[in-house]
Amino acid sequence: MNNLNDDALNLLFRDARSYSAWLNRPVEDDTLRQLYDLAKWGPTSANSGPARFIFVRSQKAKERLRPALSPGNVEKTMTAPVTVIIAYDLKFYDKLPKLFPHNPGMRDVFANNPQLVEVTAKRNSSLQGAYLMLAARALGLDCGPMSGFDNDRVDKEFFAAGRCEDCVQEFFPEGHVKSNFLCNLGYGDRSKLHTRSPRLEFTEACTLL
Ligand SMILES: Cc1cc2nc3c(=O)[nH]c(=O)nc-3n(C[C@H](O)[C@H](O)[C@H](O)COP(=O)(O)O)c2cc1C
């Protein structure tokens, strides 16, 4: 197959919306594993993959998130089957010997340049969050991305303690990981959507040189 058909393009883009209301249908852990196993293939600088994803799906874990949410984001988050914290590891360069083995010097390029680390981690974790959303849509899930929350509060609650309660695997060492944005996942209730807002036309957003 060289390109997707119209149905697939509709699923990924034209019919895909940002959801605030959810059908009463759970998202299995296995679906979350499939989701990551697709999203991980998206490109990042030096194949650094700085994003870390925390799938918050138990009621207990959701309650830890609640106090950090903007008032307008509380209801949609607490009712979503899953809320992903898309975060970034400021020590992502320690994984470069595995992820970028053909250039062993790359680890130190980052390790000696905190400014480069910051901009690389933010840029690429944002991209990886976008890959995650498109992968979710490809698997038939719906998304509700959010930046309306207190990042410092989320970082203290989920990352600063150095222990990740209830996580299958503990790989968020103290202080290295910071939140970027949140994304609710589930099966969206189309009946609760408002009319879609327009997008810029090609001539407004693009230039051909
Ligand atoms: C990074 C990001 C942050 C967002 N923050 C919020 C938010 O805090 N609360 C909210 O209700 N929607 C939020 N949105 C949703 C946008 O308003 C929505 O994606 C946009 O209006 C397009 O809507 P549509 O996908 O239904 O066309 C956010 C979206 C993105 C990508």
Q: Can you put this structure into words, describing what you see?
A:
With 209 residues, the chain is of the alpha+beta class. It has helices at 6-14, 29-39, 59-65, 71-79, 96-99, 106-111, 114-138, 151-159, 202-205; strands at 51-56, 82-89, 142-146, 177-186. It has a 4-stranded antiparallel sheet with strand order 1-2-4-3, with helices on both faces. Helix 2 (29-39) crosses helix 7 (114-138). The chain is globular, with a radius of gyration of 18 Å. The chain starts with 5 loop residues before the first helix and ends with a helix. The model has no long low-confidence stretch (mean pLDDT 94). Flavin mononucleotide binds next to helix 4 and strand 3.
Helix and strand topology:
Elements: H1 6-14, H2 29-39, E1 51-56, H3 59-65, H4 71-79, E2 82-89, H5 96-99, H6 106-111, H7 114-138, E3 142-146, H8 151-159, E4 177-186, H9 202-205
Helix pairs in contact: 2-7
This protein binds flavin mononucleotide.
What are its keywords?
209 residues; alpha+beta; 40% helix; globular; binds flavin mononucleotide
Structural class: alpha+beta
* DSSP, total strands: 4
What's the SSE pattern?
HHEHHEHHHEHEH
Shape: globular
Mean pLDDT level: 94
Tally of helical runs:
9
Q: Which small compounds were modeled alongside the protein?
A: flavin mononucleotide
Question: Rg to the nearest angstrom?
Answer: 18 Å
Distance between the termini: 30 Å
The main β sheet shows up as:
4 strands, antiparallel
Helicity level? 40-55%
Query: Strand order, biggest sheet?
Result: 1-2-4-3
